[in-house]
Amino acid sequence: MSVEIVEGRDVTIRFDGKRCIHARRCVMGEPGVFRANVEGPWIHPDDAAADDVLRIAYACPSGAISVTRKDGEPGEHPPRANIVVLRENGPLAVNADMEIEGHGEMLRATLCRCGLSRNKPFCDNSHIAGGFVATGEPMSRESELKIPELTGKVTVKPVMNGPLMMAGRLEVESGTGRNVDRVEKAWFCRCGQSSKKPYCDGTHKAVGFEAP
């Protein structure tokens, strides 16, 4: 699915179908703007106020939806604190001022940690059919980093045939919002078989994991 760019009166909506994981925050949050199961155009930017359309962009966990304002008001901005959320039996949901190597800058992304996605490093929901199992509620670790310090650029580097390396200050959160860890650099498993999830333990080498 190609990228759709839809111009409205006050906003421009960009939709990247390859990054969409069908979280449905758009069609449930603003069903007049994002119309499910229709023939023809399904995005109608002028059917809600610019603030409400922007709210949907922030709610989109994959970053498939982004919004640019035309009315002179502030648009999307980086989060007040960089966060990576561990989805139960699912991907890493990152909300950060980040740059993913080979994919550019973005504020939100869902990144594969099951090893099965056909759109790596992004999730494509292959974990569902693949029966991937990984807790979203691991034990918490101690950290000296404070919440106000979790700002600044985060770089994400998919290591060839290996983990996702994230460099920058961010909080690792459970699926229910509990603080699991705060890090400045970490290697997250993306082969799906580490015994220390969400972190890499080198298992990708033993199982012959292959990914760019």
Structure description:
The structure is a single chain. The protein has 212 residues and is α+β, with helices and mostly antiparallel strands. It is 12% helix and 29% strand. Strands 4, 5, 6, 7, 8 and 9 form a six-stranded mixed β-sheet that branches. A hairpin with a 5-residue loop joins strand 8 (164-173) and strand 9. The radius of gyration is 18 Å and the shape is globular. The two termini are 21 Å apart.
What would you say about this model in short?
With 212 residues, the protein is an alpha+beta fold.
Task: Outline the fold blueprint.
Elements: E1 3-7, E2 11-16, H1 25-29, H2 50-59, E3 65-69, E4 83-86, E5 92-100, E6 104-111, H3 126-130, E7 154-158, E8 164-173, E9 179-188, H4 203-207
Parallel strand pairs: 4-8, 5-7
Antiparallel strand pairs: 1-2, 2-3, 4-5, 5-6, 7-8, 8-9
